[in-house]
Amino acid sequence: HLAENGYETVDLYDLSLAIAGKTELPAKPVIITLDDGYRDNYENAFPILQEFDFSATFFIVTQPIDDGNETYMSWEMVEEMAGAGMRIEPHSKTHPDLTVKEKEHIIFEILGSQETIAAHIGQTPRYFCYPGGRYDEETIEVVSDLDFWGAITTEGGEWHGFDQRFEIPRLRMR
To answer: How high is the pLDDT of residue 19?
Structure first.
């Protein structure tokens, strides 16, 4: 549908540059995001994205990958996708509800996953996706303090602006 209707994939970095007035987006931009890092992201979504010359952002939970959980991608799969132009961004280490955690644990979950991904793909991710879409002011503060450029919610919406950079909405597809 997207290819047939002239949509072009961009990523959150492209969106940030456009919001800052540094670049323009194509006429029909779309950002494709996938959460969690399950193996089907690599086996099913990745080949389809390549077939249509699309890119996507994969928000991954790092601990299951570190543990070799077979329902999740492996680091080799993640690295291959990053090398093919897919964005790999953190979705925490263990996918907890961050609104009920102490600040130190929130930092551990967010920074730990960011550093793990950076070690595997060779660049520091700058966007975070709140696990289960759950976040609060303290979580936003931690994400901001850790120098992320933005964070993604599960809340529906289309508008993206600078003031929303830590509460970027999405259109959810199932």
So the answer is: 87
- Cβ neighbors of 20 (< 8 A, separation 6 or more) are 162
Q: Which of 39, 28, 37, 25 shows the shortest CA–CA distance to 6? A: 28
For residue 38, give the DSSP letter.
Answer: B
Partnered with residue 34 across adjacent β-strands are: 58
DSSP class of residue 44? I
pTM: 0.95
Structure tokens at 135: 């976040």
- Cα–Cα distance for residue pair 82/145, rounded to 1 Å: 26
Q: How many CB atoms lie within 10 A of CB 142?
A: 22
pLDDT mean over 19-35:
94
Give phi and psi for 26, each to the nearest 5.
-65, 170
Let me know: does 26 contact 8? Beta carbons within 8 Å. Answer: yes
Q: pLDDT tens digit string along 119-137?
A: 999 999 999 999 999 999 9
Could you give the residue ranges of the DSSP H alpha helices within the chain?
A: 12-19, 39-40, 46-51, 62-66, 75-83, 103-121, 137-145
